[in-house]
Design a protein that fits this description.
Elements lengths: L11 H16 L6 H29 L3 H24 L7 H29 L2 E2 L2 H24 L10 H25 L24 H35 L6 H10 L1 H12 L3 H17 L1 H8 L13 H18 L3 E2 L1 H19 L2
Antiparallel strand pairs: 1-2
Length: 365
């Protein structure tokens, strides 16, 4: 984690977040050329990697499964900020931005992060083990949140189009918050052992073998994590015109902007989940994957619902037929993956193929 005998301030993970704030101050409000856009993108990527490091330090200090929530909530803050910022500054194409981003987040977490973690773990350890009780509860919560927030709006009749009426949106927001709060209580307090790594004989393992970082190092990483998150949000806003222009130039539909946002904000969790899988801690990878999907819906939808009071234009949350088929298939396959409590390369490959199908159909709807 943090190098010994050297101040964390002198490491790249300490320098990059501060450098990102400087770059943000210089680039904010300017029309950037090609070279500055590339430079900002490089700094943005490095800042995301730095955020991963500091989130892992904080997570190691607080322990599992609470540690998995740190990164999930952090990236959700980024996601909400990006969606609201783009919806304020965007045009009519942003009516579906919240739906596109949240749905992309669910597909990336439930298929991309989960599939990659299972595949990496199985390639190194042949068979991956995890607690089906905790993971199944997480999957059930994700499926319920996704259905309430993104499937029902397509079929309700109180408001024209795939939109909720104000009363329905309020109910969906409150229900999402309640479900997320109940899950967090279950994961961190009531049934904490359901979300800890398990061994072949079913014994629950506490994380982690290395000694946790000191209180001073944890506070330092927490401060730098907050700085990195602020910088990521700002730099992503600076990059957003280039992202939108790139999507148009590539001939992709406007909804693909939501996919790009989701891929950007979930990069830290993808890296953290992959590292956990390679350490034979697939349960932590699944905590991150499903926890991120849950936070993306359970926190983003209420935040967007609140922001819609001030945002102009419609807020379309209902999924289309193709998206609903992909969501339904993802839930079905995920149930079959989770129930046994163990998985091989095949399960990881199936989820990654679903991820590839989602990306392909996002480009060619």
């Amino acid at each position: 984690m943090i190098a010994k005998n050297r101040s964390p301030l002198l490491s790249w993970t300490g320098i990059v977040p501060v450098l990102a704030l400087v770059v943000l101050a210089v680039a904010w409000g300017r029309d950037l050329g090609v070279f500055p856009v590339v430079l900002v993108a490089i700094v943005l990527g490095a800042t995301v990697l730095a955020a991963v490091h500091h989130a892992e330090v904080v997570a190691h200090r607080v322990g599992e499964p609470l540690g998995s929530l740190v990164l999930a909530v952090a990236v959700t803050i980024i996601e909400v900020a990006l969606i609201v910022t783009l919806m304020i500054s965007g045009g009519p194409d942003t009516a579906t931005l919240a739906r596109d981003t949240v749905f992309a987040a669910v597909m990336i977490t439930a298929n991309g992060i989960v599939g990659l973690s299972l595949l990496l773990g199985a390639l190194r350890y042949d068979v991956t083990l995890f607690n089906s009780e905790g993971t199944g509860a997480a999957l059930a919560t994700v499926a319920t949140l996704a259905t309430l927030s993104m499937v029902l709006p397509t079929f309700t009749t109180s408001h024209p189009g795939p939109e909720f009426s104000p009363a329905q949106l309020t109910f969906a927001a409150l229900a999402s918050l309640a479900l997320y709060a109940m899950f967090v209580f279950t994961q961190t307090v009531r049934h904490r052992d359901f979300f800890l790594p398990v061994t072949e004989d079913g014994v629950v393992e506490e994380e982690e073998h290395a000694s946790p970082p000191s209180k001073k190092a944890t506070v330092f990483s927490l401060v730098l994590l907050l700085i990195a998150l602020i910088a990521v949000v700002g730099l992503a806003k600076v990059e957003s015109p280039a992202i939108e222009a790139g999507v148009r130039a590539a001939g992709f539909p406007p909804s693909f902007v939501g996919v790009v946002i989701a891929m950007l904000v979930l990069l830290p969790e993808t890296l953290a989940a992959s590292r956990a899988a390679l350490r034979e801690r697939v349960q932590i990878s699944l905590n991150l994957g499903y926890g991120s999907a849950m936070a993306s819906i359970g926190l983003t939808i209420p935040a967007i619902a609140l922001a819609s009071v001030w945002l102009k234009g419609p807020l379309e949350l209902g999924l289309g037929p193709t998206q609903m088929v992909l969501l339904g298939l993802t839930v079905l396959v995920s149930v079959l993956t989770v129930v046994p409590g163990r998985a091989t390369r095949l399960q990881g490959g199936v989820h990654l193929v679903l991820m590839a199908a989602f990306l392909f159909l996002a480009i060619n709807p």
